[in-house]
Amino acid sequence: MTPSRLLAVAAVAATALTGCSGGSSAGQGVQVVASTYPLAYVAERIAGSHAQVSDLTRPGQEPHDLELTVQQTAQVADADVVVYEKGFQPAVDDAVESTGPETVVDAAATAGLEGDNPHFWLDPRKLSRVAGAVEQALAKRDPDHADAYAANLARLRAQLTSLDRAYARGLARCRTTTMVVSHDAYAYLGRYGLTFASISGLSPDAEPSPDHLAELRKLIEERHLTTVFTEPLGSPATADTLAHDAGIGTAVLDPIDGLSDSSADQDYLSLMRRNLAALRKAGDCR
Ligand SMILES: [Zn+2]
What we know:
Layout lengths: L2 H17 L10 E5 L2 H11 L3 E5 L14 H9 L2 E4 L5 H10 L3 E4 H5 L12 H18 L4 H25 L7 E4 L13 E4 L11 H13 L4 E4 L6 H10 L2 E4 L15 H16 L3
Parallel strand pairs: 1-2, 1-3, 3-4, 5-6, 7-8
The protein binds zinc ion.
The site of zinc ion (ZN) has 6 residues, from loops.
């Protein structure tokens, strides 16, 4: 980079710094740290151009067993708003507890978890609740832009409502409502009438026992299922074997824990729509 180009960049950066300083000690706009993709998505939608959002989980990284770097722990400490889900990522829980950031949104408490399943974002109504809490936190830290945050929330909520309706309509009349999936992420889709049998448990790493695989095979045969769902993150090997042995196909269902290389150009809404299409196909829904 030439010196004159450097100066130009510095000038732009300085303008950006003075342009939006409400509520932030560093003068760079409100700094939001989110712990996983679905939370970062919501924070970005509410923030619009008035706050900076960073996601502690990088695309392609498995969020369940996230470890934080020293820099990321410092980021949590310095953030104006931290959006995380207590109980989902122990390293983030530790960082929040030890650094005590000023404004914290705990998505687990806001969404209302069912059982110990952390994947609440698969229910658009629960994600909408979290969006409301993020909007309040941002408005509190940056009251100058409260109107913009409220407008962004209204737009997001309208889309989440229409997504919820599309699921309810799209899954109302299906030949089968039983789905075999990779990890136990999909319980929150149960309210659309689906039931899920998972190869591994809540965490994608758990290895299934031969007995468990035999049970799934039996379920596939009894219910005449046509699909075993794999996931973009994690190995499809067990799902592939199960499907192959049962003589049926596989398809991708995304728990939207995080973005992957294959979904880098997607977002929460488009991935949810893609999942709906995959579920409708597997369920032979009319
Ligand atoms: Zn998960």
